[in-house]
Amino acid sequence: MKEFVLQGEKNTSKIFIGNGIVKEASDYVSSMIQSNKKPSKICVITDSNVAKLYLESVRNMLSELELPIFVHIIPAGEEFKTLDTVAEIYDTLGENQFGRNDMLIALGGGVTGDVAGFVAATYVRGIRYLVQIPTTLLAQVDSSVGGKTGVDLVHGKNLVGAFRQPDLVLIDPELLHTLTDHIFRSGLAEVIKYGCIWDPEILTMIGEDDYKEHMEDWIQRCVAIKVHVVQEDELEEGLRKILNFGHTVGHGVERLGNYVDLSHGEAVAIGMVAATKLGEQRSITKIGTAKELVEILKKVGLPVQIQYPMESVHQALLTDKKKQGNQIDFVFIEAFGTTKIEGLSVEELQKTMKRLED
To answer: Residue 69: exposed, middle, or buried by beta-carbon count in 10 A (0-12, 13-18, 19+)?
Structure first.
């Protein structure tokens, strides 16, 4: 079992990684509770897919805490990461008289974690306890750690949100055995991202035929990077921006597919290839890096080609929350393990994207 501690501005996030640790969830949760701020009730927020697999067992384990346990199940899918979904959770909490010292537990993937985290940050101006139990690879290596929460609008992805560090994150790789190949591959895109921006050894590990046998190792590596980066820059004013590698173009193509044609990971994979090719064109990225990245992504079954007109992608990028005025911060890699952020004007980005189409 591996433990990380992320000291946020407002609270400390304890992260535990180990096979089977969810079976001890009540012990971890109990040790987190402050004696002078005991919750009176718990709400488990999960989705319709995860509920069938894990809700009953997690609920039974939590019963050891001898607190009333409520459940709110949201529909599975990125298209339900909306303010309407948040409002429905608010209703559940309001009807059951949840207060500031109570507890929310997010049991699920990235959508569940983002939505539950946003609710924790905003309901009664902040609920005291937030626990993340991520059940997808993407959530375990990325979205459950670092405190970014939020929902999508029709105008773009994650345009409404807040920073809210979870108090406790329980990452159990054994939960990944029930994932479909499609969902598992989606999470691999974020794993590969960490190899691109920080730790090339991750890319070497993913390149091995038996890479799944070392899953706990590379999950720990990804989380260690995320903790370090967020510890240095919690509010994404500098270093944390490198975690957006592949996400600028990725969010654009994800939106063009109405959040259903491509999973988030698939969109990020496409975005990483685009960013690497653009970096080579701009003499930022070492020539040949894009070819190597494409080979890695193809090996694990991730897409690498943009399937939409480049002008449509460019227009979608203009709603990205990273855009400030007439400029958008774009993350490039110079080589695997090193990054460079450049501010591109809207016009320059359009020309750059056009060259990518050519």
So the answer is: middle
Is the sign of the CA dihedral 164, 169, 175, 176 positive or negative?
A: positive
Tokens of 224: 């260690």
- Backbone Cα Rg of the chain: 20
- 333: Cα within 13 Å, side-chain hemisphere: 30
Q: How confident is the model at residue 356 (pLDDT cuts 50, 70, 90)?
A: confident
- In this structure, the number of other CB atoms found within 10 A of the CB of residue 261 comes to 13
Cβ–Cβ under 8 Å, residues 109 and 135? yes
What share of the chain has pLDDT > 70, as a percent? 98
The label of the residue with tokens 């080609």 reads: 305
3-state SS assignment for residue 277: helix
Residue 303 sits at φ, ψ, to 5 deg, of -75, 155
Distance CA 108, CA 130 (A): 14
How many CB atoms are closer than 10 A to CB 40? 12
Over the chain, what is the mean pLDDT?
94
In angstroms, the CA 197 to CA 119 distance is 31
- Identify the pLDDT of residue 325: 74
- Tell me the per-residue pLDDT of 320-336, one tens digit each, with 9 for 90 and over: 766 777 788 899 999 99
Q: Quote the CA–CA distance of 199 and 221 in Å, as a whole number.
A: 8
Each residue's pLDDT tens digit, 83-115: 999 999 999 999 999 999 999 999 999 999 999
Structure tokens at 109: 């993937």
CA distances in angstroms from 227 to 222, 246, 320, listed in the order given: 9, 20, 24
Q: Which backbone phi and psi does 11 adopt, to 5 degrees?
A: -160, 165
What pLDDT does 73 receive? Answer: 98
Report d(CA 37, CA 31) in Å as an integer: 13
